[in-house]
Amino acid sequence: MPRWDDAPMVGRAAELARLMAAVDRAAAGRSSAVLLAGDAGVGKTRLLDELIASATARGVRVLTGHCVDLGEVGLPYLPFLDLLRPVAAEPELAPSSAGNPALAALLAGRPPSVPPVAMAAENADLSRPLPHRASPQPVDDGRLQLFESVAGLICELARRGPLLIVLEDVHWADRSSRDLLRYLLARLVDEPVAVVVSYRADDLHRRHPLRPLLAELVRLPAVERLELAPLPDAAVAELVRVLAASAGGLPESRVEDVVARAEGNAFYAEELVAAGLHGEALPLALTDVLLARVEQRTPAAQQVLRIAAVAGRRVRHELLAAVGETAPGELEEALAEAVHHHLLVVSDDGRYRFRHALLREAVLADLLPGERVRLHAAIAGYLAAHPGAGTAAERAHHARESNDLPGAFSASLEAAEAARRVGAPSEQQQHLEAALALWAVVPDAAERAGRDQVALMTETAAASRAAGELHRAVALLRSALQVLGPDGNPVARARVHYTLAQAMVRVEDVSGGYRESAAAMALVPAQPPSEARTWAAATHARMSYAVGAMEEAEAAAEEALAAADALGLDGAWSDIAVTQVRARPGADPAEVRARLDEALGRARRSGDVDVEMRVLFNLATTAFEAGRIDEALDWTRRGTERARDLGIEWSYYPAELRHLQVTALYMAGDWDESLAEADLLARIPEMAAHVRAAGLLVLVGRGDPAARERIDWARGLIPRLSAHILLDLVTAGSEIDLAAWQGDAGTAVAVALATCRRLQQVWPDDHLGVLRLVGTALAAVADAAADARRDGDTPAVDRWTGAGRELAGAARSAVEIYRRSWGDTMGVEATAWEARVEAEAARLEGTVALGLWRAAVDAFGFGHVYEQARSRWRLAEALLAAGDRVAAAVEGRAAHEVAVRLGAVPLRTAVEGLARRGRLDLPGVRVVELSAVLTPREAEVLRLLALGRTNRQIGAELYISEKTASVHVSNILAKFGAGGRTEAVAIAAQRGLLPTS
């Protein structure tokens, strides 16, 4: 695995620019200095390496000195010895200083002898303030000659060219080095010298000898301080991916974990990546580094740190006092020591927290098991005795860690209820899972919980569904059935069966859902009507429609509706009403809307949030499928806002609403908002990954390089989420589109065919999604076939037309299967893509199909701004081929305006290339005449190059020598800035400069 300092620098562009500005000032003849501060591992050395490389590339001489931790007594002038040794090795660099005895003694490791008075002054550390003027006034001791000699040497070097001096880790500098640095920064005023001094901010405790020096230095006019803050999360994530790439990469969840734990520290990130690749929790090397600072503190301070580590990331003073049983004065001294040495910091609310989370992890890892249990027990006891001192979640944690399992069980249930009240389903699920894990070891679990184990399992499954963890919900419900057993209460078993069916359909297991709903129906009689039977029938109707058992579905639906009305079960009535609307495509739109409006009102009256979200999603979907994009967006916004208010924004239907919103915004041409919605939150459940993947539509449309990385991320998830067909569909569509813009017809075909087969398997009678895949892939294949025809490559023409016909056949088959099952009820988007497929299929065969392209333009006019513009571009191309330049210009201008407004760079480039080739009048596009670029002879050579002729063949056809032809080819490449013949032809074609005859 590469080290982080070998990886490309990330997240430090602004800081590097500031340092280079200091170098630029020095190059202009003005001295400058930067005091670079940052915690250990935050990236100071990596930034300085980049600075040195950049300065060297500009011709700046660089001298580097390093300080070393040698304890209380260090070697005098060590960093200056380090940076001056290269100069001593080349005396011709500073001939005037070569014979200086003070410098000779220094470089020989013998600092000049000083009189007793001077020695006393050195021990005093020259701590008085600097004078407020450029020339320094150090104590008049034997060191003055040395200090002035070093300054003179630096000035002499600087006269040969600008100079950058880098001193690293001056928090370890000896007294003499600090004094010399103080002298130099005051002495060097109008010299072409930049000085950059780095030090660890977290090592500067209150009495550190560097602190007063820094306070004085920043008062000098040419000195500035640069605080190196922790890296942003995005930069750490980029670094982690680079570090892990050589080992095959890390799962995205692991990347996010490293980012969260590293807290912007590059060194910590590197160690955590290495630990992750080798299965370690906290690497030993990192633990040693962190604990070294703890072990330097007094026993009282170390005990405070141990209590704080066990207590949590933040801890109150009162808890430390109670648990530590320390006298107030001693506790305050220990806390002051921990704070002044940057181990603890004080939060705005007055609580103490660790400077870095990994420091807490290291302290925890160092505790003996017995000590850890004892501290957890003491903290749990304190929290139980002082209810306002902590949360139920904290109490549960400390009780569990101190082996008080009954106490942990009860506190976990309290914590789950608290999370439910504030709309936090993920946290509710975690606490319920913790309680379930303790059920078997708590003798009176049912009494403490107030419900049986199956009830707790179904409650946990409901929380899992609300949090978007659908597979976990399925697993919990299956476990509940096992606990009930075949002889369990039939009503309880029926409830679990139909709830399991509802969860299974959301992970694309429709046949499994049908089996579960049928089992529920068999357990509960139809008479007398009951809540369990009504929900079983409602669920079974939905599953039966999904598997094509229409008569069974209708019977169950009618039973459910009647029972729901009789029992006043508005939630069940709304659920079955939505099922019937979706099972009957082609129904009167007004009736559908009225039915859904009633369902929404009833769902809200019932308080069934899941059904309410289902109704909102279907209101948005029906509008979307009818081409009413603005109405669909209105519903998606209402739904996502409602879900956010309820704290369930990543449960199934809210996630689908957000995915629909991202897609609808993309269609409407609001690409910035579409991308913002796709990237709204950094952490989302895996089953909602298609929401973020939907942002690919914009990234690919804009030609954003980030598209490739996001496609790879989504592709990595698909094998684990095999039932998540929408993720596959979104990713494949974007990957095909990217391949098409890049001219990679092979990839477009392979991805399209593979995804078409998968869609047909999962949705056998409704897989119209293949129309978009095929329509986009055919664009690339038709381009490849056209190129092959131009080059006279008959085998390639046959190969590409064969692939294209297979794609078109898959699309037509999907339409035929759909119409056989559902009649003529395709939505407007599917109809538009069908028109695109037919137009591209004609282009594949070399046909100028004006009517088909006009039909595609009209079909996408329902509100798909981008695809209509893309169809206009192809229509303009066809009109040019038909000789209608006026109409082609009209279509080209319309397509170009949209491409510019959306920032759709690939489409804009394609339209502008068409305009140049066809000499179309397009705003902002200058048509260059061939004669303005190439000589007549070069134009002839270019024409032959486009036909694939060699230099010898060109010479023969034009009656010139092969050498002369080579000269003409070289001139053409130079004028186009091309690296080869093929690239030159491509550039000429793009600019409309290929000769037509």
SSE arrangement:
Blueprint: H1 13-27, E1 32-38, H2 44-57, E2 61-66, H3 78-89, H4 101-107, H5 116-123, H6 143-159, E3 163-168, H7 175-187, E4 193-200, H8 210-217, E5 223-227, H9 233-245, H10 252-262, H11 266-277, H12 284-295, H13 299-311, E6 314-315, H14 317-324, H15 328-340, E7 344-346, E8 352-354, H16 357-366, H17 369-385, H18 392-401, H19 405-421, H20 425-438, H21 445-449, H22 453-466, H23 470-484, H24 490-505, H25 510-523, H26 531-547, H27 550-567, H28 570-583, H29 589-606, H30 609-625, H31 629-646, H32 652-668, H33 671-678, H34 689-693, H35 696-702, H36 706-717, H37 725-741, H38 745-762, H39 770-791, H40 794-822, H41 828-844, H42 850-859, H43 865-881, H44 885-902, H45 905-918, H46 936-946, H47 951-958, H48 962-976, H49 981-990
Parallel strand pairs: 1-4, 1-5, 2-3, 3-4
Antiparallel strand pairs: 6-8, 7-8
Helix pairs in contact: 1-2, 9-10, 9-11, 10-11, 12-16, 13-14, 13-15, 13-16, 17-18, 18-19, 19-20, 20-22, 22-23, 23-24, 24-25, 24-26, 25-26, 26-27, 26-28, 27-28, 28-29, 28-30, 29-30, 30-31, 30-32, 31-32, 32-33, 35-37, 36-37, 37-38, 37-39, 38-39, 38-40, 39-40, 39-41, 40-41, 41-42, 42-43, 43-44, 43-45, ...
Features:
flat, 67% helix, mainly alpha, Arc Repressor Mutant, subunit A, Rossmann fold, 997 residues, three-stranded antiparallel beta sheet, 49 helices, 7 domains, five-stranded parallel beta sheet
Amino- and carboxy-terminal Cα gap: 57 Å
Shape: flat
The biggest beta sheet is recorded as: 5 strands, parallel
Residue fraction in strands: under 5%
What's the number of extended β-strand segments? 8
Q: How much helical structure, as a percent, in the residues?
A: 55-70%
Biggest sheet, spatial arrangement of strands = 2-3-4-1-5
Can you count the helices?
Answer: 49
CATH class of the largest domain: Alpha Beta
Radius of gyration, whole Å: 37 Å
- Write out the CATH superfamily name of the largest domain: P-loop containing nucleotide triphosphate hydrolases
Question: Could you list the spans in which at least 5 consecutive residues all have pLDDT below 50?
Answer: 113-140
> What integer is the average pLDDT?
86
The CATH architecture of the largest domain would be: 3-Layer(aba) Sandwich
Oligomer: single chain
Task: Please identify the structural class as seen in this structure.
Answer: mainly alpha
The number of distinct structural domains comes to 7
